[in-house]
Amino acid sequence: MIVRIMGEGQFDVPDSLVDRLNELDNAVLAALDSGDETEFRTSLDALLAAVRAGGKAVPADYLGPSDATLPFESATVDEVKALLHEDGLIPG
C-alpha cells in the first residue's frame, strides 16, 4: 500500500502493517467523534509515526497514485475531517 503524508512524501507500507494502521485510524476517528483534541493529536501522531517507521520512502520521482493520504503532522481537526473517506483515512 502506498501512503502519502502530506508535505512529506509517499511511503510503501507492507501489508503486514495495514491492520495496525487501521487500528490507529480508528483511534483518530474516535477522537474526532468525541471532540477530544488531546487524544486526536496523540492518535494522529501515532498513525504518522507508524507509517514512517514501518514504511519505506518511495522515490520522489514516483508518479503512481497513493492508496491513502494522511494529513501533515500539525493538521487541524477540520483539515483532517476534510480528508476522511467513508472508512476513515486508511482504506479497509
Structure write-up:
- There is one protein chain.
- The protein is an alpha+beta fold and 92 residues long.
- The protein has one domain.
- It contains 3 helices and 4 strands; from the N terminus they run ββααββα.
- A 4-stranded mixed β-sheet has the order 3-2-1-4, with helices on one face.
- Strand 1 (2-5) and strand 2 form a beta hairpin.
Topology at a glance:
Blueprint: E1 2-5, E2 9-12, H1 18-34, H2 37-54, E3 56-57, E4 68-70, H3 77-83
Helix pairs in contact: 1-2
Features:
single chain, 92 residues, alpha+beta, four-stranded mixed beta sheet, 3 helices, 4 strands, 46% helix, globular, PspA-associated domain-containing protein, PspA-assoc_dom
β-strand number: 4
Distance between the termini: 11 Å
How many discrete domains? 1
State the helicity in percent bands: 40-55%
Overall structural class, as computed from helix and strand content, comes to: alpha+beta
**What is the string of SSEs from the N terminus onward?**
EEHHEEH
Strand order of the largest sheet: 3-2-1-4
Rg on CA atoms, Å: 12 Å
**What general form does the structure show?**
globular
Q: Taking all residues together, what is the mean pLDDT? A: 93
Estimate the strand proportion: 5-15%
Main β-sheet description: 4 strands, mixed
The poorly predicted ranges are: none
List the total number of helices: 3
Could you write a compact summary of the structure shown?
Pfam families: PspAA (PF22743). The protein is an alpha+beta fold. 46% of the residues lie in helices and 14% in strands.
